[in-house]
Specification:
With 108 residues, the protein is α+β, with helices and mostly antiparallel strands. The chain contains four helices and four strands, in the order αββββααα. The model has no long low-confidence stretch (mean pLDDT 80). The structure holds zinc ion.
């Protein structure tokens, strides 16, 4: 089944979490794609930060969550191939981070 979103409308959603520059999804690597959700690996043109972007399409429209990663494209692809990470786990981490009350230092 084809995902209900295209690279075109994703361009407006995702920005680099560090420098806020828009991502070019033409360079995105699709790591995982299901009916209404997908996970991409993106690298920022401007600051070279790599991000895992999780996108899902629901009743309220498209939602995207970005997570900074130090994984290179190939490493991320291997992880997803081995199913070490799934889109659901990305979302779980996001939920955890949303409820996390400490500072970034506490996570390290
Ligand atoms: Zn950037």
């Amino acid at each position: 089944m084809k995902a209900p979103f295209s690279m075109d409308n994703l361009e407006h959603l995702a920005r680099c979490p560090l420098c806020n520059k828009k991502y070019h999804f033409s360079q995105a690597l699709v790591l995982d794609q299901e009916d209404n959700k997908a996970t991409f690996h993106l690298s920022c043109d401007s600051c070279r930060t790599s991000t895992l972007v999780f996108v899902s399409a629901g009743n309220l429209g498209l939602m995207s969550v970005g997570m900074v990663t130090d994984l290179e494209k190939e490493e991320a692809a291997n992880l997803f191939k081995n199913e070490a990470i799934s889109a659901d786990q990305v979302l779980e981490v996001h939920e955890y981070m949303k409820n996390f009350k400490g500072s970034a230092k506490d996570l390290i």
